[in-house]
Design brief:
Layout: H1 3-15, H2 27-35, H3 46-58
């Protein structure tokens, strides 16, 4: 497993908290902020998809966590 996976699992184990998701670094977020647009409008952006998955998990849907590589 990569260091990202190890850190993610370690955070979950040490805090005992449920992880709702991971938002990857994404230049689309910067572009959305600059233009005053919600990131979720950028449907193909990894961050937009991640925010959607977090929202779904927050609402109780069974959505698996995605693992990102850095």
């Amino acid at each position: 497993a990569s260091d990202v996976y190890k850190r993610q699992d370690q955070v979950i184990d040490e805090t005992g908290l449920q992880l709702l998701g991971i938002i990857p670094e994404d230049l689309s977020v910067v572009e959305a902020v600059v233009h005053g647009k919600p990131i979720v409008n950028a449907k193909n952006a990894p961050a937009a998809q991640a925010f959607g998955r977090v929202a779904a998990r927050f609402e109780g849907e069974n959505v698996p966590l995605l693992h990102f590589h850095n």
